[in-house]
Amino acid sequence: MQIAANTVVTIDYTLTNDNGDILDRSQDGQFCYLHGASNIIPGLEKALDGKTASDEVSVTVPPTEGYGERDDAMLQTISRNMFGPDQTIEPGMQFHAQSPQGDTMVITVTDIDGDDITVDGNHPLAGVNLNFDVKVVDIRAASQEEIEHGHAHGPGDDHHH
Length: 161
Ligand code: ZN
Description:
This protein is mainly beta and 161 residues long.
């Protein structure tokens, strides 16, 4: 069986940046996703298309096919009082916010100057080359329910809709 739209694919992957630092890896060597449903970044989905079980794929995904280029317009200065009075704020901390389009985005605190807090709304991996080493573990046809939901239901998946 080949990886194609509407297959559920299990991969074992390691993601590194150009310095060789590990940014992410599959938990327990098993990451499961629905192919063709934009569950994973476009550059990786494209590289896996047509592969079969036990294939190994090494691919470098540029930012344009990953999390996008960095955009300085996403840097903003906000006031300390946007946060709760008891919240500790320090550079490097991250929190989730809603974008104007309603998507969840990760905001990173980059600088603090008195009551002025500089935050960066770029994805933490924006502008980064993503080097994936992937082994295809398993491929199966997606169920009708998975296709309707647009995501894979893993073994023992306890989510209900
Ligand atoms: Zn579901």
